[in-house]
Amino acid sequence: MFDAIFKIVIFGDAGCGKTTLAKRFMTNKFISDTQMTIGVDLQVKVLTVDNKSVKLQIWDFGGEERFRFFLPRYVKGAHGGIFMYDITNLASTLHIDEWLAVIKESSESFPIMLVGGKMDLEAYREVSTKEGKKLMEEHELNAFLESSSKTGQNVDVIFQELAQIMLKNNRSSWI
Question: FRET pair for 30, CA 20 to 30 Å: which of 22, 79, 86, 157?
Answer without folding.
Answer: 79
